[in-house]
Amino acid sequence: MMDSVFNCTQCGKCCHNLNIPLSIEEAKAWLLSGHQLKILTEAIPWVNDTPLTEDVLIRKKTMTFAGSSGDLSIRVLMTFVGFFKDACPNLDSNYNCKIYDTRPLTCRIYPFEMNPKIKLDPTKKLCPSEAWESTSNQKTSVSNHQIVIIDQATQKDIQEIYIQSVTDAEIKGAICNELGIKTCSLSNNGYLFHLVDQHKLLSTIEKLTTDTHTIKPNEQDTSNWTIYSANEETLNDLKMVGAYATIPTQSSLKQEEFISL
Description:
By secondary structure, this protein is of the alpha/beta class. It has one domain. The chain contains six helices and twelve strands. The strands form two sheets. Strands 2, 3, 4, 5, 8, 9, 10, 11 and 12 form a nine-stranded mixed beta sheet that branches. The chain has a three-stranded mixed beta sheet with strand order 6-1-7, with no helix packed on it. Strand 4 and strand 5 (72-83) form a beta hairpin. Helix 1 crosses helix 5 (198-208) and helix 4 (152-179) crosses helix 5 (198-208). The longest helix is centred in the middle third of the chain and has 28 residues, at 152-179. It starts with a strand and ends with a strand.
């Protein structure tokens, strides 16, 4: 088993055809630059008196807002996603990042994971094998058996992503309510993206993030979520516990895009 470090080769593959998770402030800057944004919503079934004794449960609760789907209590994970086809709109003609010093945190930490508990698998990343270098300065073949060392700056950025996610969680609930978003996928079962009006989204973010704005109870109405799943067994399980659940169809998906796992 080898230790290795990551050295970017500037191949540019990670700057093409991607969905980029963004914080609220990053999402605002993305929209102000004229780029496209969509919203991902995922439901995590939740027992409200679950003791938070494990890091994974603490992360799930603190990064989400409370909701319900019928009789089922859930936590909703809402993510702003910057998206584009081909090259990132922030690349110049030479494929250099025009916003490098202020680029999103997700871009800064790539190819490392936002969740430090997830083991990095170099074989599932876009980076070429030359990017992975052993600590003995010998080029190594990419394998699942490498221990990849994360530099301190990247560790700090990964922690900052988590801090921002916690800070943003309740505001995201208010944004969903303001935009009338009440549908979501089931975590680890599919992805539901909301394709919302970009001008309305920007004005909603600006309204709910002003220094003088306080989130009111009616802005946090997170009840009556409908969960989409393309899996019949999963749907039956959800309905048995009293959840609002349905199969995503062409008629039910209006300004939404569902990707099944």
